[in-house]
């Protein structure tokens, strides 16, 4: 989350110009620069209704998992080379429709966005989703079985989406080198579990076949439910250059977005903060900001990704928080700022 890049698309050139001028004035202070980036992103997003280009309607895609569960997915194409590719995972009991405003906002900013309807969620029926068994939940995030990823025996909901995106890459509107995952509520727990599964795929003779995810955003995350837990994701190890690492706990850039009084988000941030003592940030509901002391060059220790905890002054949570409207510190503005900083 450092460096002098100005990752703004054409709709945000005015904010980018302002940022560049102020950036030069704050060359001596990395802390000011980090929050300057966020402030200007909020300005840019508040102007998006005026400067944004037209976006394509979502494509409706039918998929099938390895255990032959049929899935519906809404895909929001970027319309050009994407700024990032995002898999957006709704809360259990929710639906792609419930997070479509966030998906459209991401698309409007140049992201390609895939929003699957998770198994057991035909029309977002709470009655149907309540019938999900622990094994169903684990299967949503499952990826494995064999040495070749594209031929893996176990391909759950999110892995099936990833494979579709991999095939779509040839058309130029998907870039798995810039893949980010956003999960809402218990969907964030599932997104976290799939992320560490993605990082567990080792290279083969054909080259890399895993570690696609470059950043994670969790909105009102749930620690555990229906047989799945963030504890499992935080403890999962992968190998980077033959060295063991903890992708979720230490390595990947991670943003937590929560409403006021969210005890689970507080607990998760404290766990991550302990693992990343020199690379954390907070945004409080009153707008005040703090961050850890950094090294003189403004970079975190090698192999340690930044964690940001953004608290918003609202009682909304999960999918309803994800689509919170406004022109200030919203999940959309925060997610765009974080994604663009993380993939530069």
Q: What topology, given as strand order, has the largest sheet? A: 1-2-4-3-7-8-13-16-14-15
Largest beta-sheet characterization: 10 strands, mixed
- Estimated structural class: alpha/beta
Total E-strand runs: 16
What CATH architecture do you see? 3-Layer(aba) Sandwich
Percent helix, as a range, is: 25-40%
Overall pLDDT metric: 84
SSE string: HHHEEEHEHHEEHEHEEEHEEHEHEEEHH
CATH homologous superfamily, by name? Answer: Alpha/Beta hydrolase fold, catalytic domain
Plain-language structure description:
This protein has one domain: 3-Layer(aba) Sandwich (Rossmann fold), CATH 3.40.50. Helix 2 crosses helix 13. The protein is globular, with a radius of gyration of 19 Å. Strands 1-2-4-3-7-8-13-16-14-15 form a ten-stranded mixed β-sheet, sandwiched between helices. With 344 residues, it is an alpha/beta fold. A hairpin with a 2-residue loop joins strand 11 and strand 12. The N terminus is likely disordered. The protein is built from 13 helices and 16 strands.
List its salient traits:
344 residues, alpha/beta, Rossmann fold, ten-stranded mixed sheet, two-stranded antiparallel sheet, 21% strand, disordered N terminus
Give me the secondary-structure topology.
Blueprint (H helix, E strand, L loop, with lengths): L12 H13 L4 H17 L1 H4 L7 E6 L5 E7 L7 E6 L10 H9 L2 E7 L8 H4 L4 H7 L2 E2 L9 E2 L1 H12 L10 E6 L1 H14 L13 E7 L4 E2 L2 E2 H6 L2 E3 L2 E3 L1 H5 L2 E6 L3 H13 L4 E4 L5 E3 L15 E6 L5 H5 L8 H12 L2
Helix pairs in contact: 1-2, 2-13
């Amino acid at each position: 989350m450092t460096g002098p890049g100005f990752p703004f698309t054409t709709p945000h050139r005015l904010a980018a110009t302002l940022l560049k001028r102020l950036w030069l004035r704050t060359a001596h202070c990395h802390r000011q620069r980090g929050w300057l980036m966020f402030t200007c992103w909020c300005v840019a997003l508040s102007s998006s209704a005026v400067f944004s280009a037209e976006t394509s309607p979502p494509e409706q895609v039918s998929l099938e998992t390895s255990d032959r569960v049929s899935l519906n997915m809404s895909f929001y194409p970027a319309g050009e080379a994407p700024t990032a590719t995002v898999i957006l995972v709704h809360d259990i009991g929710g639906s792609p429709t419930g997070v479509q405003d966030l998906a459209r906002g991401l698309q409007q900013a140049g992201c390609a966005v895939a929003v699957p309807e998770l198994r057991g969620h035909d029309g977002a029926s709470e009655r149907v989703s309540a019938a999900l068994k622990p094994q169903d939940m684990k299967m949503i995030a499952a990826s494995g079985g064999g040495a070749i990823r594209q031929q893996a025996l176990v391909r759950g909901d999110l892995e099936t989406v990833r494979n579709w995106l991999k095939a779509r890459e040839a058309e130029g509107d998907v870039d798995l080198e810039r893949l980010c995952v956003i999960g809402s509520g218990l969907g964030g727990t599932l997104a976290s579990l799939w992320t560490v599964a993605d990082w567990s795929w080792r290279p083969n003779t054909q080259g890399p076949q895993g570690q696609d995810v470059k950043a994670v955003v969790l909105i009102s995350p749930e620690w555990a439910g229906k047989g799945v837990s963030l504890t499992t994701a935080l403890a999962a190890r992968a190998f980077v250059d033959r060295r063991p690492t903890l992708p979720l706990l230490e390595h990947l850039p991670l943003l937590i977005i929560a409403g006021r009084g969210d005890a689970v988000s507080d607990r998760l941030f404290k766990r991550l903060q302990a693992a990343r003592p020199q690379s954390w940030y907070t945004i409080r509901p009153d707008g005040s900001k703090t961050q850890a002391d950094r090294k003189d060059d403004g970079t975190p220790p090698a192999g340690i990704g930044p964690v940001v905890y953004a608290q918003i002054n609202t009682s909304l949570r999960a999918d309803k928080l994800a689509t919170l409207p406004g022109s200030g510190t919203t999940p959309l503005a925060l997610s765009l700022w974080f994604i663009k900083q993380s993939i530069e």
